[in-house]
Amino acid sequence: MTRRALITGITGQDGSYLAEHLLAQGCEVWGLVRGQSNPRVRRLRELLGEVKLVRGDLLDQGSLISAVERVQPDEVYNLAAISYVPMSWQQAELTGEVTGLGVLRVLEAIRVCSGISSSRTPGSGQIRFYQASSSEMFGMVAESPQTERTPFHPRSPYGVAKTYGHFLTQNYRESYGMFAVSGILFNHESPRRGSEFVTRKVSLGVARIKLGLERQLRLGTLTVRRDWGFAGDYVRAMHLMLTRDVPEDVVVGTGVTHSVEDLVERAFGVAGLYWRDHVVCDAAFVRPAEVDQLCADPSTAVKQLGWEPKVGFDELITMMVESDLALLSTPGARGDDPFGHDIW
Ligand code: NDP
Ligand code: GDR
User: Fold this and answer.
1) Confidence band (pLDDT; 50, 70, 90) for 42?
2) pLDDT at residue 339, as a whole number
3) Residues 14 and 162 occupy one common structural domain
4) Catalytic: which of 83, 88, 134, 156?
5) Which atom of ligand 1 is nearest to the CA of 8?
6) Does a structural domain hold residue 175?
7) How far apart are CA 162 and CA 183, in angstroms?
């Protein structure tokens, strides 16, 4: 029988790749969309016409119950969040509501619609749940590389909200016997990444400089290190986690770490430019508290899921710079639409 998946955050980077992957697996895919006239919904329709849409907002419990009742999903992927770390200091309460309490509301919608009572019923419920946890929970890292057993020390309101969602998912698994798991995913990028994140900011910046539209690229701290992978690879791991016999949280990353300076050097190099001629450090992009280094130990993902990344760092950065060069070279693409370049 065709499996039915409901994805929150369908209009985001991961939502689009996950929807493509699940459609290719023969699933019926539903996306939760919010707002009265969300411009990203039109873009999603252009990219993935087969996805069915249902209205809902992570701030609105009733809308989530209605969405789950309407879709009757076999799987729910909770990707929706305020996901930009600096915004979580500017709108800390909203981040707590969406990125943290939003997880509670999705889990409650599943619990209520599955008829699970408030007492523990082992193995109860048909709906499998995936939570988009984050390496930002490790924050000031206690050890390196980070595994499923590394303690958390989040460094931003975003990281704190994700940690709440992570433990809540674990708690619903233990309290109600739900098949509820978290993927602890490290940074993953693509040509569909939002322009506020550093990889896309750099690939767009390089393309603008190469095409003579800008001369400088202003960045924050260049010494921080991240474990960067390709989003298209990571959504496979999300799906695999829901196909297992036992619900278990899994770290997903490449196991290789690079600095922002490495990223910048590579990206400018792809366009035949020297980064020091163009990059300016700007305190406006330095964070109140930084996560200095992250590096995954993906051995559980490799052993238990049979997962491994197919796209390496150099290939990823080349893909992003070439995509943005093509995008900005397209007639009409340099227009005034403020969303034109940053949202796929
Ligand atoms: P994006 O920022 O690209 O997408 C976020 C999505 O959340 C958008 O579809 C947005 O919809 C939706 N959203 C925001 N607020 C609400 C709300 N109140 N109700 C319903 N939907 C809402 O994120 P990514 O695709 O990069 O990441 C997906 C998830 O994975 C996020 O939870 C992120 O925190 C997490 N994550 C991401 C990593 C990465 O490197 N990309 C790594 C680890 C975790 P709208 O169009 O309406 O704004
Ligand atoms: P991150 O991603 O905070 O790790 O969260 P981001 O790309 O924003 O930053 C990565 C690192 O680069 C440094 N940096 C800059 N970052 C941005 N955005 N802009 C700059 O100008 C700049 N200069 C230096 C940052 O300080 C940081 O250390 C992403 C999000 O997708 C989260 O939702 C997700 O949970 C984590 O990855 C894993």
Assistant:
1) confident
2) 37
3) yes
4) 134
5) 21
6) yes
7) 11
